[in-house]
Design goal:
Layout lengths: L1 H44 L8 H20 L3 H31 L12 H9 L1 H9 L12 H9 L7 H15 L10 H16 L15 H9 L9
Helix pairs in contact: 3-6, 3-7, 7-8
Keywords: Coiled coil
C-alpha cells in the first residue's frame, strides 16, 4: 500500500514539474510579446516608419498575412455562397452583353442600336419601330429556303463557332434575343420572370428538336408575366 502511495506521489510531482515548465514557457512568450508591443508603441510615438523595419515585417506583417491567408483558404459557407453568386452574376452578365452585341452585329444596318441605359420612352419607341418589329419577325425565318440559315443561328454560330455550346447556353441566348426584340416587352432589361420562363420553353424545344418560331416560342410566355415588369420595382425584380 505504501508503494502505491509513493507511485501516486511521484506522478503528482512529475505532473507539477511539467505544469511549471509549461508555465515558464508561457511566461517567456508573454514577456516577448509585451516587449514587442512596447517597442512598437515607442516607434509609433516617434513617427517611425514601421513598414521599413525588418522585425516588424517579419513578425507583425507576416503574422497578419498568415491570418488573412488562412481566412481566405477556409472561408465560411456564407462567404463561399456570396462569392459564387457574384461570380455567376458576373459571368452571366458578360455573356448577356456579348449576346446583345452579337445580335446588333449580325443584323447590322437592318436594325437601329439602343443604349442599355435608354429611358422608358426611348425603349418603347425603339420597340415599336418598323425595323425592330421586322427583325423580330425574321429571327427564326430561313434566309434561304430549305436551309437552317437564320439570324438566330448566325448569332449562335458567331458566339460559339465550334458549335459546342451547352443546351442551357443556347436556350439562354435565344431567350435574350427574344426578350430584346419582342415589342410586347416594354423593356430591354433582362428580368427573371420573363427570361427564366423562355429558357424553360426553349430547353424543351431543344430537347425534342422542335422548330422555333415567333408564334410558338416567347409568345407562350403569358402577357400576365410581361406585365409584372410594370408592377414591380427594380428592387423586387432581379435581372438575369
Amino acid at each position: 500500500m505504501f508503494q502505491a502511495y509513493e507511485r501516486t506521489l511521484a506522478k503528482i510531482i512529475k505532473n507539477q514539474g511539467e505544469i511549471l515548465s509549461e508555465l515558464k514557457v508561457i511566461k517567456d512568450k508573454v514577456r516577448r510579446i509585451e516587449n514587442r508591443l512596447n517597442d512598437l508603441e515607442q516607434k509609433m510615438d516617434n513617427s517611425f516608419n514601421i513598414t521599413n523595419d525588418k522585425a516588424f515585417k517579419e513578425d507583425t506583417i507576416k503574422g497578419a498575412a498568415k491570418a488573412l491567408i488562412e481566412k481566405a483558404i477556409y472561408p465560411e459557407n456564407s462567404q463561399i455562397k456570396s462569392e459564387l453568386l457574384q461570380k455567376i452574376r458576373f459571368l452571366r452578365g458578360t455573356l448577356m452583353n456579348k449576346i446583345k452585341e452579337t445580335l446588333f452585329s449580325v443584323y447590322g444596318n437592318l436594325i437601329e442600336s439602343i443604349n442599355n441605359k435608354a429611358n422608358p420612352d426611348e425603349v418603347i419607341m425603339w420597340k415599336k419601330s418598323t425595323k425592330t418589329i421586322e427583325n423580330y419577325q425574321k429571327l427564326f425565318k430561313e434566309l434561304e429556303e430549305g436551309s437552317d440559315n437564320t439570324y438566330m443561328n448566325r448569332i449562335l454560330y458567331k458566339i460559339w463557332p465550334d458549335g459546342n455550346a451547352l443546351p442551357e447556353k443556347i436556350a439562354y441566348t435565344i431567350a435574350i434575343c427574344q426578350t430584346m426584340l419582342n415589342p410586347k416587352n416594354k423593356i430591354i432589361m433582362m428580368l427573371d420572370h420573363i427570361v427564366k420562363k423562355l429558357i424553360a420553353i426553349n430547353l424543351n424545344k431543344l430537347k425534342y428538336c422542335e422548330h422555333f418560331s415567333i408564334s410558338s416560342s416567347e409568345d407562350d410566355a403569358s402577357q400576365e408575366d410581361r406585365n409584372k415588369s410594370d408592377d414591380n420595382d427594380s428592387e423586387n425584380d432581379n435581372t438575369v
